[in-house]
Amino acid sequence: MDIRHLQYFLKVAQYKSFTKAARALYITQPTISKMVKNLEEDLGVVLFHRLGKQLELTDAGEILFVQAQDIVHSFQNLSAELGDLMNLKKGHIRIGLPPMIGSSFFPNVLGKFREHYPAITIQLVEDGAKKVEADVETGVLDIGVVLSPTNEELFHSFSLVKEKLMLLVHPSHRLADRKAVSLSELAEEDFVFFREDFALHDRITAECVQAGFQPKVIYESSQWDFISEMVAANFGIALLPEPICRELDEERIRVLPLDQPVIPWHLVIIWRKDRYLSFAAREWIRFTQNLFEEWRGKNKHPREHG
């Protein structure tokens, strides 16, 4: 038995005639008669009996009539819901972002996506890149924005932004007027860091150790604006991604390039290779990838396209 058996049965019950039902369904009368006969054999009951020229439902037919209406209605709803999903009229996406990303350029990305797909809802979860990567791995999140490199055996990914870290110092700092600073020159400085659950915490520490010193961390935070304000208050120095530095008040904070080494800040979008991804999530990945390629082609930062 398939859904067509029930649909044909309901049409015969509505018209009380195989001929009229066949005409309404644009099929032959023998076809619909055979369908109903197969249904009766599958169920082991008689569904119709004849009263003169009309068909009437048996007691078994009455029971099936009530249930079949619900089944066919549910199937139609299911088809419509799946159609909406495949046509991207609805859906829900869970995306993990490091806090500094959300305030930098993602509002512009999300705004453009919503213009095209207003019925798709997006849940944003702000966490450090390490936590975001772990949540994509376990399935808590569909998609995440993390620092490269990432686990290529576990995740699909594409490049989002390639920038570098910049040095933030107070205007009165001894290095404030320099055009560039080597990392080794910061060995005696007080650092304001991201918390340990942020990938940048490990990245900066590793670079400092490579340069010959262990950074002296006096404050840790999950918020880039708090970190920059600590620098503005002359409590220490910090290393922040270049896009964030474009937002800062140059009269209160000096932003200087780092050299020897330049520390890259390469963001990628990741999703699991071995897990089902919804139509909406797949479209968000495609849309975002095309958007960033378009922006890169114009040699502009995403925030400039508001």
TrEMBL record:
Keyword Transcription among UniProt keywords: yes
Protein name as it appears in the record: LysR family transcriptional regulator
Similarity remark: Belongs to the LysR transcriptional regulatory family.
InterPro entries given in the database record: HTH-type_LysR_regulators, LysR_HTH_N, LysR_subst-bd, WH-like_DNA-bd_sf, WH_DNA-bd_sf
Keyword set includes rRNA-binding: no
Limits of the HTH lysR-type domain: 1-58
Entry GO MF terms: DNA binding; DNA-binding transcription factor activity
Pfam families linked: HTH_1 (PF00126), LysR_substrate (PF03466)
Record field: transmembrane: none
Assigned GO CC terms: cytosol
PROSITE patterns xrefs: HTH_LYSR (PS50931)
Superkingdom of origin organism: Bacteria
NCBIfam families, per the entry: trans_act_CidR
Keywords for this protein: DNA-binding, Transcription, Transcription regulation
